[in-house]
Amino acid sequence: MPTPRETILTALADLLSTIPHVPVLRGDVLPERIPSAGLMILRDGTPGEPGVTLSPPTYHFQHRSELEVIVQSASNRDSVFDALCAQVGAVIAADRTLRGLCDWVEPEAAEPVDLPVEGAASLKAGIIPIILHYATTDALG
């Protein structure tokens, strides 16, 4: 049986995969080719130190996962990147509790970086921190 952490991360990946034409990888390495609509890689991140309430013991996590957003284009790289980040925000805003699996999902602003690629259209990438607020009776998350 998966842990609550794994269940929530899987649900987040499933939610992000509803963005059309943009593959969502989970913890993979950056592939050699980036689809024209972009690519997202969800990193598990860290659950951090939980807060604890007693009777019954409940562990409250603010798990910080990271979503890498990557686009490659010779002409409209900035607008494609911006549109993809906006779509991430919109799908998360539509389901802030991942169908009741967690208390709240909060994406933070992306920190974009331009990456020149020799002999190809340059990449624009950024990491969107996504904070997952959830509670569980399992101290391991």
Keywords:
141 residues, alpha+beta, 2 helices, 7 strands, 37% strand
Plain-language structure description:
This protein is of the alpha+beta class and 141 residues long. It has a single domain, classed as Phage tail protein-like (STM4215-like, 2-Layer Sandwich). 22% of the residues lie in helices and 37% in strands. It has two helices and seven strands; from the N terminus they run H-E-E-E-E-H-E-E-E. It has helices spanning 4-16, 77-94; strands at 24-26, 39-46, 51-53, 58-72, 104-107, 111-115, 123-136. The longest helix has 18 residues, at 77-94.
Parts with pLDDT < 50 across at least 5 consecutive residues: none
Q: For the report, how would you describe the main beta sheet?
A: 7 strands, mixed
What string gives the helices and strands in order?
A: HEEEEHEEE
User: Rg from C-alpha positions?
Assistant: 17 Å
CATH overall fold name: STM4215-like
Our measurement of the CA-to-CA distance between the termini, rounded to an integer number of angstroms, reads 13 Å
CATH superfamily: Phage tail protein-like
Shape: elongated
The percent of residues in helical segments reads 10-25%
| Structural class computed from helices and strand pairing | alpha+beta
Average pLDDT rating: 92
The CATH architecture name reads 2-Layer Sandwich
Count the helices. How many?
A: 2
Please count the beta strands (DSSP E, at least 2 residues each): 7
**Percent of sequence in beta strands:** 35-45%
Number of domains: 1
Q: What CATH first level would be assigned?
A: Alpha Beta
